[in-house]
Design a protein that fits this description.
Layout lengths: L2 E4 L6 E4 L9 H14 L1 E4 L6 H9 L21 E4 L2 E2 L2 E2 L20 E10 L2 E2 L2 E2 L3 E5 H6 L3 H7 L3 E4 L1 H9 L11 H6 L3 E4 L1 E3 L6 E3 L6 E4 L4 H15 L5 E4 L6 E5 L3 E5 L10 E8 L6 H8 L3
Parallel strand pairs: 2-3
Antiparallel strand pairs: 1-2, 3-17, 4-19, 5-6, 7-17, 7-19, 8-9, 10-16, 10-18, 11-12, 11-15, 13-14
Protein name: TauD/TfdA family dioxygenase
Keywords: Dioxygenase, Iron, Metal-binding, Oxidoreductase
Family: Belongs to the TfdA dioxygenase family.
Length: 300
Amino acid sequence: MLAIEPSGQVLGATVHGLDLAQPLADADFVTLLQALGRHGVLRIPGQRIAPRHLRDFSRRFGPIQTGIADRFRDPEVPEVGILSNLVRDGKPIGLADAGQDWHTDMSYTATRGFVNVLYAVQVPRRDGRPLGATLFANTRAAARDLPAEVVRRLEGLTATHDFNVFWERMRRRPGSARAALTPEQRAKRPPARHPVLLPHPITGETVLYCNPGYAERIDGLDPAESASLLDYLIAHQLQAKYRYAHHWTEGDVLIWDHIGTLHNAIPDYRPDEPRLMLRCQVMAADVFDPGFQQRWLKAA
């Protein structure tokens, strides 16, 4: 029987009684959606699954993103991406996902990201301690705590999110071998605008949707005012009281809500300390749809 055990912290819960190698029952899917809305980050431990199981589970939440870093995808199940520091025949087998700083995946696209689903196959360890933790910040709690005058100032405003903001930050780090994006590459990922204050599709609560990874500016403000307001919003949502850390164990499947959280993968492991994760990125193409909400969110 499915059971949800809250972490007791600002985010996080553990899901008991679920085997993702089996089809997900409708009633269990509804329970997971509601738990995701309440807790933001769900750990489903003890899984032993194939890439196709991860794909089938992730598809329940919406369409899976494809076409990004195609060379780092499962050869038989292309919806499943590979995140790893492992090297075979002198070539990396997966995309490195640590050290990217705080961000929200896919905020730079017109269709926002909904959930990230990661399956831990290998977790780096040192002296018996797991490395490569993923940190989260609760953007629902951060929005709830905004001063009333800031909320009034933000109402109706949008922010421009641009993949190139993140890319340039990574490119300028010491030791980076990244080249600047070409005009053709930038054209494939044009900037997108999203409301700074956004209703969460599961709970209806307001979230602060303005992450430091991709947000470039607050639209309609002069550059100095935009930069000042962005700095304030980023510092506000990254306060320690909004943070939660997940320490990985092999067999964990972690699902988190891109709309209600920020995340940051910690690169505290060496190249000889292997890390291997399988990932599905689910877009928010369905969860904002009234038909999806009527069928699944009204069922609880």
